[in-house]
From TrEMBL:
Protein name: Adenine nucleotide translocase lysine N-methyltransferase isoform X2
Biased composition (Polar residues): 200-209
Gene3D superfamilies per record: Vaccinia Virus protein VP39 (3.40.50.150)
Residue stretches spanning the membrane: 23-42
Chain intervals for the UniProt region annotation (Disordered): 189-209
Organism name: Odocoileus virginianus
Upper taxonomic lineage: Eukaryota, Metazoa, Chordata, Craniata, Vertebrata
Regions of compositional bias (Low complexity) in chain numbering: 189-198
Family, as annotated: Belongs to the ANT/ATPSC lysine N-methyltransferase family.
Length: 209
C-alpha cells in the first residue's frame, strides 16, 4: 500500500474549499463557544441589573487604569472599586500605595478571576474582593454623598455620574474617566483640599458595575 506524501496532502488540504455543510458546522461551533463565554462570565452579572443599564462587560484598558491612577495620585487612603470586574484597577491601586484596596463585583466568575490575578501578583492577602449587588442601592449618588468623608474622591470610568459636576476629566472614548470630590455642605464635584479615601466606579457592565 502506498503511503500518502505529507507535502501533497497539505497542498491538497490548502487548495480544497470547504463545503457549505462544513462552514455551517464551523459557524455553529463558534456560536457555542461564544455562548459558553457569555453563560460563564457575563450572564450571572446581568440577571439583577436593570435592562436599561445592561451593556457588555469590557475590562479596563491599561490606558484607563493609568487615567484612574492619575486622578488619585497623591491621595492616600482606602480605595474601593465598585464594579471591579477582574480586579485590575484594585491591584493597580494597591501597587501604587492606595491601601487598603477593595473591589465589589456582582459576577461570581469575575470575582474568582480577580482573586486569581491577585494570587498571581503575590498580593492575595493584601486586597479584598466581594460579590455584592450594588443595584440594591438605587440612589448611588446619594449614598456616596452621605457616606464618604469630606475630601474623598470618586472616579467614574466610561460613564459619568448623571447629576454631579466633575472636577477633572481625563482620556477619550472608552478610556475616559471623571473625577468628583465629596464636599460637605455643598454639591458634589467641588474640589476639596487634603487627603481622603477614594471610590472608583467601574463601567456599568460587570456590576453591571
Amino acid at each position: 500500500m502506498e503511503q500518502d506524501d505529507p507535502a501533497e496532502a497539505l497542498t491538497e488540504l490548502r487548495e480544497r474549499r470547504p463545503s457549505p455543510l462544513e462552514l455551517l458546522q464551523v459557524a455553529a461551533g463558534s456560536g457555542l463557544a461564544v455562548y459558553g463565554v457569555w453563560a460563564l462570565l457575563l450572564q450571572p452579572g446581568f440577571r439583577r441589573v436593570p435592562l436599561r443599564l445592561q451593556v457588555p462587560y469590557v475590562g479596563a484598558s491599561a490606558r484607563q487604569v493609568e487615567h484612574v491612577l492619575s486622578l488619585l495620585r497623591g491621595r492616600p487612603g482606602k480605595t474601593v472599586d465598585l464594579g471591579s470586574g477582574d480586579g485590575r484597577i484594585v491591584l493597580a491601586a494597591h501597587r501604587c500605595g492606595l491601601r487598603p484596596a477593595v473591589g465589589y463585583e456582582l459576577n461570581p466568575w469575575l470575582v474568582g478571576l480577580a482573586w486569581l490575578r491577585a494570587w498571581r501578583a503575590g498580593c492575595v492577602g493584601s486586597v479584598r474582593f466581594h460579590r455584592e449587588d450594588l443595584w440594591k442601592l438605587p440612589l448611588l449618588e446619594d449614598k456616596l454623598q452621605a457616606e464618604l468623608p469630606a475630601g474623598a474622591r470618586v472616579v467614574s470610568g466610561r460613564f459619568p455620574l448623571p447629576t454631579w459636576q466633575p472636577v477633572a476629566v481625563v482620556g477619550e472614548g472608552l478610556d475616559r474617566v471623571w473625577a468628583y470630590d465629596i464636599h460637605r455642605g455643598g454639591p458634589a464635584g467641588q474640589a476639596v483640599p487634603g487627603p481622603g479615601s477614594a471610590s472608583v466606579l467601574g463601567t456599568p457592565n460587570s456590576q453591571t458595575g
